[in-house]
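Hi everyone, sorry if this is the wrong subforum. Our group has a chain we'd like a structural model of before ordering constructs, and none of us has done structure prediction before. Sequence below.
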Amino acid sequence: MDPKRQEEQNRSEDLREQAHLESFCARIGKRLIESQDLADMLRRCTQTMVDDLGAAFARIWILNEQDHVLELQASSGLYTHLDGRHARIRVGSLKIGRIAAERKPTLTNQVIGDPCVPEQEWAKREGMVAFAGYPLVIDGHVIGVMAMFSRNALSESTLNAMALVADEIALGIQRKRTEQALIASEEKFRYVFETAGVSIFEEDWSAIRELFHQLRVQGVTDLRAHLDTHSQVVTDAIPLVKITDVNDYTLQLFKAPSKKVLLGSLDRVFVPETAQVFKEELIAVWEGRDIYRNQAPVRTLTGDDLVVFFTLVVPKRESDWKRVMVTLTDVTVLSLADAALREKEERLRSFSSQLEQLVEERTAELMQSQDRLRGLATELNLTEQRERKRLAAELHDHLQQMLVLGRIKLGQGKHLVESIPACAKLLHETDTLLSEALTYTRTLVAELSPPVLRDHGLPMGLKWLGEYMHKHDMAVTVTMMEEPLKLPDDQALLLFQSVRELLMNAWKHAQTDAAEVTMDTQDGRLRIEVRDHGQGFNVAAAETHPATGLAAKFGLFSIHERMKALGGSFTIESAPGQGTTARLALPLRASIQAAKVVSPSHVSPEVSGAQMATLLPDGGTKEHVCVLLVDDHAMVRQGLRTMLESYADVLVVGEAGNGEEALASVERLRPTVVVMDINMPRLNGIEATARLKSRYPDLIVIGLSVNAEEENQKAMKRAGASRLVAKDAAVEQLYAAIKEFSCNRASVSHTTQ
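Answer:
Right subforum, don't worry. Here is the predicted structure as tokens:
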């Protein structure tokens, strides 16, 4: 063929191909515009690729960004199904996934032998020659992949046309998604608008926006001040707001038969008072607030008064001014209820002063009851400890001595009956029984009143307690501070008993065989912690039901109250399955200070004779017998104080814990009578009495002792005491003795004068 003719023929074919491809692109554009939904649009596009380009089949996937997976949306030609192996392709997987990952097209006219096409047998069987795959990209982001297989080679012009079509399809997908989102948003808005349980007014504030612009041009910066001086601006602005729509609930609220009737009767709905709310709305919009809320009266078309709550969302964008939403919530019932509530509050206020007075009276009574109960608790504790010591003394001084003597006698008898085997065996068995009884009595003495606690103090007592718990198969680790610690006996005993009770509770109820006891001092306070890792318990439940769980002899409440009486604290932390930690804390101060705290009396423990008259309840000048209590047991002193202060003519002016303190207290307080215990540390009562009488011959000293036998009676008499009263008879005899000798002294003094 003539070369020139061949060139013209090639040019003609190129023109026909170009026209065909332009027609293809135009048909794709038409499909993108005509389609009603996304799925239909994509199906038409793939079908056009099959019809116009002769593709064996064409497919489009859209990226699921959340799962990072390409999902098949349309397939035309040889395969039209949307399920199967290629329905979901992970980005980066297979040829299609790699196109999305690399964001580059993949083109080949040699499918057979291409390593990127793993289905070679399928390609040979179907006669596939070419493959073209393009990423669908919007603003640099892949939103899908378009691909096709062809049984014919694809020209460069065809590939370029497909690249253009890929961009158009990407834009079409984005546009269709936007349209669907707008439709869904509008449907959602319309649904909320019509079904909301509040009244909604849709308003056009464009004219208000223009009014604001004019005011700013005029130099207005403070709209509130401007409206206060130009009230007509508010009236003129009301018709500038165009109500474009209301929901059905609004018609029900204002009892309007139709929107047309309601919008034509707004002057009947919004009463003059509503204008003030509109003014505040204008100011809120002017100031650019996010939202405005206020309450105002309105009226239904039937003349019923309502109270509604206005809410206006302030427009921010220019388009927002054409669609301003104002909601009205009917709060008429709430308003009536609020008025009724205010009326009730006024009635309650009228009783407030009476109620406060009644509360003060009841509180005073409760405080008095609390003081009396704490005093009673102290008395009960004193009685319990006296009985414990008495029993321990009886066991030690009598039963143990008798058992020891019995064993000695039996030992002597063994030598006399060695020739009588049966008798010797019987004596041996009796000796064994006495030995066991002696061991048992030692244990009882220790449990009643541990000698180590009395003789060596609390630290050694707690260590003994840790060893004692071994008899219950419980390992207790005791950790102490190194510095020495000396506590008053009553405090040491209370802390010891509390720790013992907590350990016994852990052994009984925590289902554990180990516990830890830690004692240290910090910031002037003694701290003891008892911890176990057992099953724990519900603290609130234990407080509600004190007869169960940890509530044993002392009980959590009892320990708490006794620690509080001494100015200390008791806390406990526990939860089921998390073990239990109990903490005891006590200020490190003198025993006389501790006695102050537990005293139910309102009189200071130390009162000088010169202060006596000022402490009389009625301000009179009645004579009192001023008494100083001297005993090394704070709880004994407390019991005596409680007893003596029940008599109106006796005033306890102070307390002392030993003989040396007694000497100093008499010098400072100058009492009329000193009640002196005999057995005390540092300086006993007999020596202290002798020294006091040598300095103050007129001082009355009345001795007090558990052992008031003749020897002690004579010793106290020689020292100068007026009488020795047995402690167990103090209730019956002490007051009488005080009165007897104080009266005798007064008579002698009067006679001398």
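For your construct planning: Confidence is low (pLDDT under 50) at residues 547-554, 590-605, 607-622. The chain has five domains: 12-183, 196-330, 358-445, 450-587, 602-752.
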